[in-house]
């Protein structure tokens, strides 16, 4: 029996196993990174959705309570959505010990695109939904259309956040201050 041929086959087999293991490890790392990207994007979008929803509802409640028309109520709701969206991020970054000017820049960098997309979708749905603009706080249509518009905004904004996070932008900026 030729031991050198057997040793060579064993060596080749070991090299192939190592390559396969490295390849599987690399693929696992890619899968894990992709999953972490989506997980992070979902968390960032939920964070954004929280601020947007607070602002949207508060703006609509205030506008409706004062008897304002659709345009001023919508503008107030959008302004408050940005305010609360930025405020939630700002609060977390300030807790990490960052000075206010830096924390403010981080909040702007992290949330502007996310909030803008969310507001565009959310308000677009309301504008296109027959009679949703004219629904009052006491109408089921008001709340149903608001919830559906926010859900659709979440669905559209999550891939946007994944894209920005994957490029080191958006909420990726905030995560630098949390770790």
What descriptors fit this protein?
mainly alpha
Q: What's the Cα radius of gyration?
A: 25 Å
N-to-C terminal Cα separation, in Å? 59 Å
Low-confidence stretches: 13-35
Number of strands: 0
User: Can you summarize the main beta sheet?
Assistant: none
Instruction: Write the H/E string, N to C.
Output: HHHHH
How many helix segments? Answer: 5
Overall morphology: globular
β-strand percent reads under 5%
Helix coverage percent: over 70%
Structural class, please? mainly alpha
Question: What is the mean predicted local confidence, pLDDT?
Answer: 80
Offer a quick outline of the entry.
The chain is an all-alpha fold. It has five helices and no strands. Helix 1 runs antiparallel to helix 4 and helix 3 crosses helix 4.
Write up what this structure looks like:
This protein has five helices and no strands. The protein has 179 residues and is mainly α. The chain has helices spanning 3-65, 70-95, 100-128, 140-166, 171-178. It starts with a helix and ends with a helix. α1 packs across α2 (70-95), α2 (70-95) runs antiparallel to α3 (100-128) and α3 crosses α4. Residues 13-35 have low confidence and may be disordered.
Topology:
Layout: H1 3-65, H2 70-95, H3 100-128, H4 140-166, H5 171-178
Helix pairs in contact: 1-2, 1-3, 1-4, 2-3, 3-4, 3-5
């Amino acid at each position: 029996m030729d031991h050198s041929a057997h040793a060579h086959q064993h060596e080749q087999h070991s090299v192939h196993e190592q390559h396969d293991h490295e390849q599987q490890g690399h693929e696992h790392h890619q899968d894990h990174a992709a999953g972490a990207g989506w997980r992070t994007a979902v968390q960032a979008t939920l964070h954004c959705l929280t601020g947007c929803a607070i602002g949207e509802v508060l703006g609509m409640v205030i506008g409706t309570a004062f008897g304002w028309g659709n345009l001023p109520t919508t503008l107030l709701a959008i302004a408050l959505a940005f305010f609360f969206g930025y405020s939630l991020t700002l609060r977390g970054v300030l807790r990490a010990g960052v000075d206010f000017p830096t924390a403010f820049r981080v909040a702007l960098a992290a949330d502007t695109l996310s909030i803008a997309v969310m507001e565009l979708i959310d308000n677009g749905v309301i504008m296109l939904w027959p009679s949703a603009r004219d629904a009052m706080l006491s109408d089921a249509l008001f709340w149903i259309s608001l919830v559906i518009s926010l859900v659709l905004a979440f669905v559209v904004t999550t891939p946007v956040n994944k894209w920005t996070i994957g490029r080191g932008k958006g909420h990726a900026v905030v995560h630098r201050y949390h770790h």
